[in-house]
Structure formats: C-alpha cells, structure tokens
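Here is one such protein, fold included:

. . .
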Amino acid sequence: MRKRILVGALATAVGMAAGFMYYRFYGCTEGCSITGNPWRSTIYFGVMFLLGNEILNDLITKNKQKP
C-alpha cells in the first residue's frame, strides 16, 4: 500500500512538472482555459498523470490475478 502511494505521488509530481513545462514552452497567453494559466496547467497535468497511473496500476493488477 505504501509503495502505491509513493508511486502515485511520483506520478503526480512528474505530471505537474510536465504541465508547467507545457505551459512554459507551448501554452498560449490568452483564450486557452487550461494552458493559459500556469496553475491550471500544472494541476491539470498532475491530475491526469495520477489518473493514468491508477488506470495502469489496476490493469497490471488484474492481469497478474488472472489464472
């Protein structure tokens, strides 16, 4: 359980870094709801990476449990 929490926290941190870099290098200055604000893009990418991590973790766990 502790490993799952640490991996989730790492995925969130990587996602937040990716979100900020996306804003910094590709984000637009106005008119974009997510990438126009560094806080929104950072939080959005962090949540997306966390959800992606949870989905992959569930798929891997289900595949290991199949006979």
